[in-house]
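Incident review: delayed structure delivery

Summary: a single-chain prediction request sat in the queue longer than the usual turnaround. Root cause was a stuck worker, restarted by the on-call engineer. No data loss occurred. The affected request and its eventual output are reproduced below so the record is complete for anyone auditing the incident later.

Affected input:
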Amino acid sequence: MSALQIRLERIGIVLQGIPVELVEQAVSGLEPLLRRRLQGWRPAAAEQIDIAGLALDPVRAAPGLDAAGLRALLAEQIETGLRRALGPAGGAEGGDG
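Output delivered after worker restart:
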């Protein structure tokens, strides 16, 4: 059984009107959340693919959003972008919703 390894060294996301402190708190727990969401997912394209141009949908934040909510929104957008770029799962679906 082979493991999927996705290495994201940098992601550029523009967030307007959201305090820097909130973004820093949200991003601090993003990696473990993404690991859980993508656990078990195997993309159709098994070889190494350059996803430098990964396109993310705009993040729309509701008023009163906290760090956990922002983290969940960001994880959802990154997961959606990866799945869109790499194709449907060939194995078990990951994610939690």
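Verification: The CA atoms of residues 38 and 94 lie 5 Å apart.
Action items: add queue-age alerting; document worker restart procedure.
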